Amino acid sequence: MGMFDIGGLLKAGAQIVDEFITTEEEKFEQMLKKEQLNLEKEKIYLQDIQSARQMQIQALKQDDKFSKRFIYYFAIIWTIIGTIYITGITFFEIPDKSVRFADTTLGFILGTIISQIIAFFYGSSLGSKLKEETLKKISK
Question: Residues 138, 73: one domain?
Answer without folding.
Answer: yes
